[in-house]
Amino acid sequence: MKNARLNRISRQLDWVNIVFLAVAHVAAAVGVGWAVVHFNPWTLVLALSWTVLCSLSITAGYHRLFAHRTYEAAAWVRLLALLFGAASVQNSALRWVNEHRLHHSNVDRDGDPYNINVGFLWAHIGWVLHKNPSTELKRVRDLKQDPLVIWQHRYYVPLAIGVGALVPMGIAALWGDALGGLLLAGFARLVWQYHATFATNSLAHSLGSRPYDRTTSARDSFFTALFTFGEGYHNFHHRFENDYRNGVRFWHFDPTKWLIFSLSRVGATRNLRRVAEEKIVRARLIAKGQQEPAQRPESAFAASSGGEPMLSPES
Ligand SMILES: [Zn+2]
Ligand SMILES: [Zn+2]
Questions:
Q1: DSSP letters along 41-94, please?
Q2: If 0-12 CB within 10 Å is exposed, 13-18 middle and 19+ buried, where does residue 298 land?
Q3: Which pLDDT value is given to residue 157?
Q4: Residue 11: its pLDDT value, please?
Q5: Cβ–Cβ contacts within 10 Å for residue 134, how many?
Q6: Which residues have a Cβ under 8 Å from the Cβ of 151 and sit 6 or more positions away?
Q7: Tell me: the pLDDT tens digits for 231-253?
Q8: Which whole-number Å values give the CA distances from 185 to 37, 47, 125, in the listed order?
Q9: Distance from the CA of 287 to the center of ligand 2, in angstroms?
Q10: Which ligand number lies closest to the CA of residue 101?
Q11: Where are the domains of the chain?
């Protein structure tokens, strides 16, 4: 923990991120005020639609498809995830996945970019406000084979501005509320999304239970799942990272899982990977007897990509 704190201190502030986040928060607050004064139901519908599309592009797209390869998706699904993923202004899929795989393979240790042991605020937003000392894309060799991913990486900034701000502005201009479209569907949506994603790194490593693995900080919480489109079942996710579900039970609130499953019914996604039920039961039994910290399971992405052999495609 001490080393992690020292690493944080030695990292330089990232002024581009700091200024952008500050501007985004101010614009989001102005947007909320604008919505109260100039309420327009169509702008609200647009902002909610953008929130759903962008959030699912991060959870189902960047996270469960690109980072963990928990299923395969048709080109149009990948394209939509990349477009609305860019609009989420969380970096290109290549960079996002590279950092996320680092998180899984070094969780709670120095190499974890959002190590919760450095502190809750660090895991939530502090790490974004500092420059990342290692920007090499070493863990995404598999993704570099996807021309759509490479295209998004190359044109990330214009795509983020276009889909994240100009398109919602243009749509809202149809009913004469272009500024409302920018402030609400652009910035207020973006700030909400930031804190939902950040909460998966902070809250999901602090609040909840650990039924599958007590040796990491990752926790399952219905509360966190509620506003993260199902990412709150984080203990299960860290234990079985290549399963397309985070909320493993059918009643768990996991809209991302429901989307991936629904798309598979119409042939847009396929080879959904699920861990065998007996592995889940065994993990629960082992977790009951676990002391912390103890030996934790190796990440499937410790080296590069691949997958846990214990997982099998859905039948
Ligand atoms: Zn993950
Ligand atoms: Zn995590």
A1: HHHHHHHHHHHHHHHHIIIIIIIIIIIT--SEE-HHHHHHHHHHHHHTTS--HH
A2: exposed
A3: 98
A4: 74
A5: 11
A6: 82
A7: 999 999 999 999 999 999 999 99
A8: 16, 4, 22
A9: 18
A10: 1
A11: 2-206
Q: Let me know the angle formed at the C-alpha of 95 by 216 and 300, rounded to the nearest 5 degrees.
A: 40
Q: What is the CA radius of gyration of the chain?
A: 19
Which of the residues in the chain have pLDDT under 70? 1-10, 291-315
- Cα 125 to ligand 2 centroid, rounded to whole Å: 14
For residues 60, 66, 69, 75, the Cα torsion angle rounded to the nearest 10 degrees is 80
| Residue 304 CA to ligand 1 centre (angstroms) | 14
Interval between CA 288 and ligand 2 midpoint (Å)? 21
Per-residue pLDDT at 10: 59
Q: What residue type is assigned to position 233 of the chain?
A: Y
Question: Is 45 exposed, middle or buried, given 0-12, 13-18 or 19+ CB atoms closer than 10 A?
Answer: exposed
Angle at alpha carbon of residue 81, lines to 78 and 87, rounded to 5°: 145
CB 128 within 8 A of CB 95: no
Q: Return the amino acid letter for 270.
A: R
